[in-house]
Amino acid sequence: MFKEYATAIMALAFIDLAYLFGHLNRRPVELAFVSTGGYIALTSGVLASALYAVRRYGFGVRDNLQKSVLMISLGFTFWLLGIILGSLTVFHGGFTVRFPSWLDALWLTGYTLLICGFYAYDKMFQIIWSYSKGRFKYAMRSAPPAVFFSITYLSLYFVNPLKGLESSYATATLELTYLVLDALASGFAVFNMILFFKGRLGKAWTLISSAMLIGTASTTIFFYLYNHGRYYRGHPVELLSFLSLVLIALGMHMHVKEFS
């Protein structure tokens, strides 16, 4: 995994320097290109890790593992498609960020497939967490709901999409949907991190859980900035999303290495 870690660090360092250069020189066009290129490159890396898992575990729906990696791969495919089409829309529209838009259908489909993939994965190990005992059993049953409700509460507190009901019902509904889906995905990831914490898959799920939590923070900050008219393409908050994508790509790759 040394080569993978080194590649990830170099990619993040390059993007950070590009963002710094763009902000110091106040060049919105360059920032928009760096932002779009970063999203496309890193999401492609995540999709490559997911497809690597599909190749190793087999393409199909014979068991929950195959279902899981297939749905996760499809989820990131929708995300990548949304990013590519979104970049074309942004450049064509003069670098303005449109929300909500028809691209949200792609993002929400990707989110749904990702969560369904996590669920199929957990079904595979149901016997483990169903018969757990003691503190482990308590942690398994209490931590995921605690994570879900805590993230949902904090996200709603900072973003408060219900304020937007007076001006835009669609915007408020989509913001609420994204925040709940983020919290749900984070809950699943933390559940798996606890389940495999002391096992071979512990490091992989720690990376994936960290990625989901950082991604949730990024989404919350994005909506806060957008609602206050302070978000623009190339905003530093996007670096959180990039870090999240790198961590989930590394986590999925490590999972394949350890689980094979």
SSE blueprint:
Elements (H helix, E strand, L loop, with lengths): L1 H23 L3 H30 L6 H29 L11 H21 L1 H5 L3 H26 L9 H27 L6 H26 L10 H22 L1
Number of helices: 9
Q: Tell me the CATH topology.
A: Rhopdopsin 7-helix transmembrane proteins
Largest sheet: none
**Unreliable stretches:** none
Helix fraction, binned, reads over 70%
Total domain modules: 1
* Overall spatial form: globular
Summarize the structure.
With 260 residues, the chain is an all-alpha fold. It has 9 helices and no strands.
3D structure, described in words:
It contains 9 helices and no strands. It is mainly alpha-helical and 260 residues long. It has one domain: Rhopdopsin 7-helix transmembrane proteins, CATH 1.20.1070. Helix 6 packs parallel to helix 8. The longest helix is centred in the first third of the chain and has 30 residues. It is globular and about 55 Å long. The two termini are 15 Å apart.
Structure keywords:
260 residues, 9 helices, Rhopdopsin 7-helix transmembrane proteins, 0% strand, single chain, mainly alpha
